[in-house]
Amino acid sequence: ESLISIRQLSKTYQRGTQPVPVLFDINLEIAEGEYVSLMGPSGSGKSTLLNLIAGIDKPSSGSLLIDGVDIAMLPENDLASWRASNVGFVFQFYNLMPVLNAFENVELPLLLTDLSRAERREHTETALAMVGLADRMDHYPNELSGGQQQRVAIARALISDPTLIVADEPTGDLDRHSADDILNLLDRLNVELGKTIIMVTHDPKCAERARRRVHLEKGVLLSGSGGH
Ligand code: ADP
Ligand code: ADP
User: Fold this and answer.
1) Kind of pairing between the strands at 69-70 and 61-66
2) What is the distance in A from the centroid of ligand 1 to the CA of 73?
């Protein structure tokens, strides 16, 4: 049984009256606990596919089941709450709130839950300790290095204990040393916490850290798509 099951999926954006086909007949099965990198040239459709998997966008045709849930069939409200509890997002430019410190950024998703203040604090401190930033909780994003900001973002992605972590060029803005730190951290989330990780990257060095590599070329899946 796959965690993610994509069958004959196509995606066409609409630009005015002009259809822009981006993904063609994608078939992909990903099991729970896998660590997959999604590679391909710029414009090949990587982010589009990642956004579909994360429930940010819906396929134009075909099906996308996650944990048996057909994403395309969920009303927008249900999709948003499904996303909040099942998917953690990591972006290239961290997307932290500049006016909130590290603790507050990580705690943010929990403000929408009914956890008590003490429970929120405990979860937030645990997540920040997990990424090695227990001593930086009161730092604001502009007081942290790029690698540290990305670790805050990863703690925030973990805070709701999602099954799936999606990362779009998570090391794209980092030097090699900080990038390695982040890749080591993602590796631990996969091995120690059993998180399913899907990482978009155009950097082969990053991609090789994943246990499975999938290639997109002009909207078509080339290899590693597996399936059963
Ligand atoms: P990648 O992540 O591989 O660089 P993307 O998925 O971002 O590729 O984009 C694939 C193609 O889809 C590109 O040609 C891009 O211009 C187009 N595209 C992406 N988003 C939209 C959109 N919202 N509307 C129209 N075209 C889009
Ligand atoms: P790295 O080389 O690891 O990317 P930096 O050289 O950016 O890190 O930062 C080194 C240390 O200085 C980090 O621990 C960071 O928390 C701290 N730091 C960076 N920028 C600021 C700042 N504007 N105010 C306070 N501390 C900062």
Assistant:
1) antiparallel
2) 23
